[in-house]
Specification:
A hairpin with a 2-residue loop joins β2 and β3. The chain is α+β, with helices and mostly antiparallel strands. A three-stranded antiparallel sheet has the order 1-4-5, covered by helices on one side. Strands 2-3 form a two-stranded antiparallel sheet. A two-stranded antiparallel ribbon has the order 6-7. The chain contains three helices and seven strands; from the N terminus they run βαββαββββα.
Length: 107
């Protein structure tokens, strides 16, 4: 799990369960329940910061990615693979040109 720009109290809370191998980077072997509870706590206390969690899963990639708080990056699924989509200046340019149909659900 990685944390950026989060309260110190959240870092302290995570260090009870995981090892902080570098500032903001936490590693550990927690159960699925503890992992999910830590994620919920991190998301609830992130405020303006960002957090990412990667954990082992039985899929093609062998892991799952969760992100929170970074508007420029999001995890997308493509043919069962998780990829990270990064919004850049080109995305902003295309978004201005895109004009969705008014009654999209009636098409």
């Amino acid at each position: 799990m990685t944390l950026e720009a989060v309260p110190e109290s959240l870092r302290g809370e995570l260090s009870r369960w995981l090892i902080e191998v570098q500032p903001g980077v936490y590693v550990g072997n927690a159960s699925a329940l503890v992992r999910d509870l830590l994620w919920d706590k991190a998301v609830g206390h992130t405020r303006r910061g960002r957090c990412t969690q990667v954990y082992r899963a039985s899929n093609e990639q062998g892991f799952v990615i969760r992100t929170h708080g970074d508007a420029t990056r999001r995890v997308v699924s493509l043919d069962g693979y998780q990829l990270v989509a990064v919004r850049n200046a080109r995305h902003a340019e295309l978004a201005q040109e895109y004009d969705p149909p008014e009654d999209d659900d009636k098409l």
